[in-house]
Amino acid sequence: MKSMRRMKRRLKKSVRVTFAVMSALFILVSTIWVMDIGEAKSNEGQENLEKVMAKETGEQQPVKKQTDEVKEKSSEESGDLPDQEGQEDEPVDSVTVDAPLPQEESTVDQPGVDASSEDKQAQEEQTVQDEQQSVYLTFDDGPNENTEGILNVLERYDAKATFFMLEPNMRRFKDSVKDMAAEGHAVGMHGVTHDAAAFYQSSQSVVGEMKKGQETLESITGIHSNLIRVPYGSVPNMKPSYRKAVDQAGFHMWDWNIDSEDWRLLSQEYVPNVMEQINAFPYKHSPKIILLHEKDVTLEYLEELLIDLTEKGYRMKALTDQMDPVTF
What we know:
There is one protein chain. This protein is α/β, with parallel strands linked by helices. The chain has a domain at 133-316: TIM Barrel. The protein is 55% helix and 10% strand. It has 10 helices and 8 strands. The strands form 2 sheets. Strands 1, 2, 3, 6, 7 and 8 form a 6-stranded parallel beta sheet that branches. Strands 4-5 form a two-stranded parallel ribbon.
């Protein structure tokens, strides 16, 4: 039993000795390996340094050679004698070897300028052409029982219009007013009384009626419109002081330059009457403003008018506050 214990102790001792020897050998090998790596890196760094120095030396030689060539060429062009012995050479740093030669200013017009000018001119011509193929339908005195029918016809032909409305009628046909605005038509004021004596009594009466209509229209649609048309047109009742008052109030007053005469022609005769005036329209740079009314006869033949306009290539648009008003 005791001999067994001794053998175990000896075995443990042998293991410890063996482990110690192996540890020492491992440390020795590791040290040698680290030293070898350090020496290799040192040699590699030295080689890299020599390469860099060789590269810099190689690059400096062409510079000096190029500098000498520049100096010789300069001397030949200026007629100077070669440098005499003992004369100091100009430092290399003072010679700009790679400096670009000065270029003369180009006298050729830049193509972008002409292109931009041509584009602008083309856009202006296109605008004029579009305007010539546009008409502006304007309806007075509504809304009334015919308004919804008029809106239905306009919708079928994707036509937009402008409605100059009387304030009492706006309050009576609120839904029609809302439909006008919702469908993209322009809405404006035509006064309150439609009575010449009352409306044109003074500049205050003119502005007052328009402001009342403006407030009613805004309360119904939420639209603050400045478009107005005075009853019976601006001539002869709109005096200079009246016009000034309207302008100062911020209103844009519109007359017309094509009269359908649907207020007089109680049949489809107003349709060819409009088309004849369009064909003979004398104002090249003016929009075509057509006067209509929300009458029974107007509604009855409105589709015929829109068909004729469409076949002629016209687009029916609504007036805007950005346009220059047409007045008498």
